[in-house]
Amino acid sequence: MITVRFFARIREQLATTELQWPAIATVSELVADLAHERGQAWAEALLAPQIIVAINQQVANRDSVIVDGDEVAFFPPVTGG
Amino acid sequence: MITVRFFARIREQLATTELQWPAIATVSELVADLAHERGQAWAEALLAPQIIVAINQQVANRDSVIVDGDEVAFFPPVTGG
Amino acid sequence: MSSRFAAVSVQSADFDPGIEIARLGTSADVGAVATFVGLVRGVTTPGQEPAVTALELEHYPGMTERSIADIVELAEQRWTLGAVRVIHRIGRLAVGDRIVFVGVSSRHRGDAFAACEFIMDYLKTRAPFWKKEWNARDEAHWVDARDTDHTAAARWS
Amino acid sequence: MSSRFAAVSVQSADFDPGIEIARLGTSADVGAVATFVGLVRGVTTPGQEPAVTALELEHYPGMTERSIADIVELAEQRWTLGAVRVIHRIGRLAVGDRIVFVGVSSRHRGDAFAACEFIMDYLKTRAPFWKKEWNARDEAHWVDARDTDHTAAARWS
Predict the structure, then answer these.
(1) How much of chain C is in helix, strand and coil states, percent to nearest 5?
(2) Could you state, in chain order, the average pLDDT of each consecutive group of 10 residues for chain B (81 residues)?
(3) Helix, strand or coil for residue C116?
(4) Which residue of chain D is at minimal alpha-carbon distance from C107?
(5) What is the rounded distance in angstroms from the CA atom of residue C24 to the CA atom of residue C31?
(6) ipTM score for this prediction
(7) Which residues lie below 8 Å from residue C97, measured CB to CB, with a gap of 6+?
(8) Is B49 an interface residue toward D (CB < 8 Å)?
(9) Out of A9, A77, A81, whose CB is closest to C120?
(10) Please, is C86 exposed, middle or buried when counting C-beta atoms within 10 Å of its C-beta (0-12, 13-18, 19+)?
């Protein structure tokens, strides 16, 4: 299993903070899987071009490999400071 | 009469904080006059190329005109901050 | 330098810039302390939206602290620094509240200024924080990332 | 901006950077406060002269205050600033003592950082202050002006 986390605008759009998901090979496949299972709103939120993905709290990309036990996070561009 | 003031290293070299002097046309003439009356040490201190001169607390130069009642100051490059 | 340390705090509590500056300047070989304090602005672009009344800051616990520590490390590789201190607040803040503190000490002012601004520019574009604003009509909206922040960060690379 | 003011102090008394920062950030349209604190360094270039133990700062009363006010005015013409505060100490100071404070508030951090560094660079090369250093052997000497300070000031023109 992997842990998938959502922050800020995406968290609100999907009304989901965190979920557990079966291990899967890459970020792209995880997004496709979530979109397929959860529907159009999820596809749109997670496929938006500016969305940032992190694996184990390091910025990653759509091709990055996921392994069992990883923490994958999706969030919008940052606006701190 | 004009007031002539000296600061920092120059003040110490000349052992003079301030003096009154008869009005004179320019800074160059004032320096020549002081060097003539006070001797070699004054000539060297006031003719050193890096010395800054101010008239009425505004930076001036050797050709600047002095009028009666002015305050003329000589000081080394500044080192504050 | 003798007093090298870097400390990062992400906290809901306020901080005291005076105390932080005093701590940054405790080594005999420190001649310069450059600091930045970010505040919640209540006025947006004149004539546009209603004034902001409050802000809520969300972060990614763990990743946020680590990404700031990485930014501080980049600065320490690039300039000769004494101590570095970064504090970023989270949770709900009112107009005029302090949001962020970045303080850098060094022998000379050039390094302290450059590193302080670098850390702020990178923090704005790399550290996972998100701002939600409330306005005078009690409407909430997520703040959009600004191109100018990315331009500011890009000039260091 | 609504809270525009500039205040220059030349004084033998110490100052409190925390209080100054708080005063700079009191307007609702201020989002950024950049500050600089200069300290008396006790360590000179390693392996060279004996360590500095104290400093004495001489100034030109009247001209010093006016030249700093002129520098602040140049900064205000160049950037969009809120408040500016400059404090410079005079007289005898010990190692670790604060010498100078420059604080600038603005809407955005870019202006605050640039103006703060500009004021420090110009103050170093234009304001009539002179430092005399004492070392561990109780020898006094006047500090020489540094070329790097003139280089730093020249990049703004």
Answers:
(1) 30, 35, 35
(2) 98 97 96 95 94 97 96 97 94
(3) helix
(4) D41
(5) 10
(6) 0.93
(7) C14, C39, C40, C55, C89
(8) no
(9) A81
(10) buried
